[in-house]
Amino acid sequence: MNANSPTSINLARLLHEGGSTEADGIIERQIDLGSETIPLQGHAPWRVSVTSVSSEGGQEFWMSGEIAGNAVMECRRCLTPTTTPVRAHFQNLLRYQPGLEGIEVLEEDDEEIFLFGHPNLDLAPFLSEAFALEVPITVLCKEDCKGLCPVCGANRNETDCGHIEQKPTKLGNELDKLLSEL
Ligand SMILES: [Zn+2]
Ligand SMILES: [Zn+2]
Questions:
Q1: How far is CA 105 from CA 28, 34, 88, 99, in A?
Q2: pLDDT digits (tens, 9 = 90+) for 108-144
Q3: How far apart are CA 103 and CA 166, in angstroms?
Q4: 74 C-alpha to center of ligand 1: Å?
């Protein structure tokens, strides 16, 4: 694996001759989803292979890939950064459409086809989306995380601030119920 490898795969040869090709690399620091990012501990290795659908070459390809890494998330009770392993596999049907900017998705016969317009295909959107889909919605730093003190905000895994929980009220109970469902 090459740390400086681009996150792309060149399909020029496949467009002319068919066959298959492979690329691999690593994503460092974070998974970029455009509007948000998922921080990584360490780096996330990925591997993608692309095969022509037709043996004579042509415009359609099967892409299959995998990416694995450790996502850093906040514990939902105490907010401590917590790493959680993520492993994603994906498979997509691609179609070359010269002149197209970026990547577009086409629905055809209940199948999603990803249209791309440049033989040097940017893999980052595929890798990021597949990774993001496998990230859990919430994590706990440990099964029995005691969370934050509702009075002073101290991390009760680390300190015993001595605060006693308030007597539960009807509103408090409902709030607890809501929070536990988050
Ligand atoms: Zn925690
Ligand atoms: Zn406290």
A1: 27, 17, 20, 15
A2: 888 899 999 999 999 999 999 999 999 999 999 999 9
A3: 54
A4: 8
Residue whose token pair is 């991390």: 155
By the 8 A CB rule, do 69 and 131 touch? Answer: yes
Give distance in angstroms: CA of 165 to centre of ligand 2. Answer: 9
Ligand lying closest to the C-alpha of residue 153: 2
DSSP state of 166: P
Nearest listed ligand to the Cα of residue 164: 2
Structure tokens at 27: 């994503």
User: What pTM, to 2 d.p., does this model score?
Assistant: 0.81
Pick the ligand that lies closest to the CA of residue 80. 1
Tokens matching residue 37: 């990012």
